[in-house]
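User: Run a structure prediction on this.
Assistant: Running it now.
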Amino acid sequence: MISRRHLIRSIGGLSALGVSTAAYGVGVEPVLRLSITRYHPTPRQWPADFPLKIAVIADIHACDPWMSLERIEAIVDRTNALGPDLIVLLGDYVAGHHHVTRIIPAGEWARVLTGLKAPLGVHAVMGNHDYWDDKLVQRAGQGPTVAHRALEAAGIPVYENDVVRLTRDGRPFWLAGLGDQLAFMPARRLRSAGRFGVDDLAATLAKITDDAPVILLAHEPNIAPRVPARVALQLSGHTHGGQVRLLGWSPAVSPQHGLRLAYGHFRLKCDVIISGGLGCSILPVRVGVPPEIVEVTLGRGPALA
């Protein structure tokens, strides 16, 4: 997870690079750049002759001026232009910092996301900021969040420790959505009860009823070392690639289980792809990790076999 102390220290270190770098990190990379990052993993659990293209959208953090409705519309258009079979939304739809001119209500950004189109649909999980921003849920110790309700009202299903069986060209696979691992802020009440998240990996995977391959959606990548080989691919966001990434190193992301699960493609028991996301958290700054839509292509298909 990105910590405030590590991120601010990393950004402070950029001062040596001069004012121009700071201006770029605030005024250019977060709001003007948008890249498409492509991965073609080959998990052993996924049949090589089963092609599937997935578009991944993570960490929108809707707010003015950094992630306006117009910018989200542009992201929707770029995503649709990829022609994916499936679109997944990996959480953190709400603003992640206070340096904003307007908090965009959930109903507004959710309506824009209804413009996403794919033959196998659009599927979502929640992120920690969606929980942290919802004071009623924090007090009650349970959801659903405002963001969750807004997406479902807009016709986009949200998975919290749940699964859905999908089929492409007669071939099935499972999409599993994990509940957020950092859903509750570390208040004394929740700490004493040992409850920080709503995730239940074992219960989620227990809902799978056949041997079709599995794709896991998990906002935070931290769960990756615990994900069994039954899963072919884990898709995560949350880290923003550290927001400041220098020569492939994300100093704001601390190691978990001996791994710095900050950004990119990892091979553990299953393949793990961590998106750099689209918005910003803590501070509206990005350097070396521009906002991105991720395209993941599984299998080769007959044309490439």
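The chain has one domain: 37-304.
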